[in-house]
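pls ignore typos typing on phone
NAP + seq
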Amino acid sequence: MATALITGGTSGIGAAFARALASRGNDLVLVARDADRLDETATELKDRYGIAVETLPADLGDRAELQRVADRLASAEQPVDILVNNAGFGIRAKLLDADTTRHEQALDVMVRAVMILSAAAGRAMRPRGVGKIINVSSTAGFVTLGHYSAIKAYVTTYTEALAGELAGSGVTVTALCPGWVHTEFHQRASIRTGSIPSPMWLDADGLVKECLQDVDAGKVISIPSMRYKALIIGARHAPRGVIRAVSRLLSSGRH
Ligand SMILES: NC(=O)c1ccc[n+]([C@@H]2O[C@H](COP(=O)([O-])OP(=O)(O)OC[C@H]3O[C@@H](n4cnc5c(N)ncnc54)[C@H](OP(=O)(O)O)[C@@H]3O)[C@@H](O)[C@H]2O)c1
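k done
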């Protein structure tokens, strides 16, 4: 049975991927920083789905630890067939803040790690002629909500470029672009969510179910739910000045 490696597989969207792929019978490799939570998640999944779960504690912002994850993806003896680059976090910091630590961590975890791990997985999967790479991006990448939008725009464009490089190889590459999802994301980043209308919230399990259908269909961009599909069609056709004005309004309600 195929093995899936999921970064950030202990919480929110990553945990939903872990449940969905386990329910399909996939074995898992889970990556996150909190080793105790990794062990708890692995035990729950093994007990519930009868699959094998390996844990790989790593901070993806640390270059040596990231390399250990890349090395695991390169293993020929224990091949990984599905990579889900999901780990990430919200950024409350402003672009002009003198302390750029959080911005740099965000680039390391949500840009550099996605690039290094996708390439490691692609190199291992291409000769086998089969594989799936899923990069968790965001609908934020279509608007201008600070550094987070710039980072997620990178993830979506990078994914499209990689899908082009791997076209015809049997390896599919998909960017998942969710809207707002109930997870630990906003609380961890101290981002206020009170102004977000309740119909705009998505449930992680439903979102992942739709994404996996898109992945199975070979789609390069997955935007779950009709409401977000419609919004993104609008965003793609609206003048950028309108997008920037709406983004400024949204940003002001979040801090
Ligand atoms: N929630 C939303 O509204 C939303 C919308 C669009 C896109 N997204 C994207 O969805 C992805 C998952 O977010 P989520 O909402 O599920 O957040 P979450 O519930 O906070 O989960 C984040 C996961 O990432 C792991 N992680 C964070 N930093 C890490 C690091 N440096 N190294 C390794 N693992 C790390 C966390 O585990 P540890 O803390 O143990 O490391 C946790 O398992 C992110 O890429 C996010 O940008 C979220």
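Residues 101-128 form the longest helix (28 residues). The pocket of NAP is lined by residues 7-8, 10-14, 32-34, 37, 59-61, 86-89, 109, 136, 138, 178, 180-181, 183-185, 188 (CB under 6 Å). more later
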